[in-house]
Amino acid sequence: MRGKKVRFAGVLAASLALVLTGCGGGGENQLATGGTDAQAEVDANAQFEPGTTMAALQQQGTIRVGTKVDQPLFGLKGLDGQMQGFDVEIAEIVAGKLGIAPENIEWVETPSKTREEVLEQGRVDMVVATYTINDARKERISFAGPYYQAGQDLMVKADDTSITGPESLRPAGAKVCSVTGSTPAEEIKKYVDASNLVLFDVYSKCADALRTGQVQAVTTDNVILLGLVEKSGGEFKLVEKPFTEEPYGIGIKKGDVAFCEFINQSLTEAAQDGAYEAAWKATAGTVSERTPQLPEFDPCS
């Protein structure tokens, strides 16, 4: 995983429009095997107890991973058909601990609405797809992790020093843009007056409004904002003061405690040996100045 070079420039323009307009694809599609252009560390000597998910996957030498294909910096299918992003890197880390090389990962396009379904029906072995852990989903599937703490944040112009977090918006009299009907649009009402909230149907229009000075900030989940920052060519920056919590976990079959514990151990080792940090810096870290810490895990159940 060290030294991995990920090329985003050529694919963001073609794919960012998909995530900004909420087009996640209509259904589950098989993608090209193989990930980014460097090899993940593969444990050729891994041994597992017979009868476990880990043993079965190691024996078959492949793993099916559900992920997004239109999420810049997290899960993106490049113009060359290869997968790239932080979620992709995390999946490759886990696969490597199973003794499975990146080229033997079968990527399955998994939009948000099908994530529980593909696990319940056995069409994938795990889902790594900006997948927020919550109680409703836990009724149908199990989660390992979380491996990343996402949250709502603010995007401002690169030279703006007046907006330092949500609490600074009202004193600054800042106009803030979000998308009609979204959770972030409701959450930001705690910090701005209704007259200073500007709503559009897509985030690309919010970015245009920020660029032209019609608003002073854009708000939504930080993973979407990171893509907008990347596309801005240095014109925008992320405030990096998230004010909601969205723990991203790895979805697996309901009740597979042993697999959950294995994934958590794999993530722990990646944080200890630097692979987690390298994965971030090669992907979302090209935009974000701060490398996240691996969050505290939820109990496996």
TrEMBL record:
Alphabetical list of SUPFAM superfamilies matching this protein: Periplasmic binding protein-like II (SSF53850)
Entry-linked CDD domains: PBP2_GluB
Manganese in keyword set: no
Signal peptide span: 1-24
Keyword hit for Signal: yes
UniProt keyword terms in alphabetical order: Signal, Transport
Ranges of residues in domain Solute-binding protein family 3/N-terminal: 62-287
InterPro entries reported in the protein's UniProt record: Bact_solute-bind_prot3 (IPR051455), Solute-binding_3/MltF_N (IPR001638)
Membership in a protein family: Belongs to the bacterial solute-binding protein 3 family.
UniProt name for this protein: Glutamate ABC transporter substrate-binding protein
Species, as recorded: Saccharopolyspora cebuensis
Lineage of the species this protein comes from: Bacteria, Bacillati, Actinomycetota, Actinomycetes, Pseudonocardiales
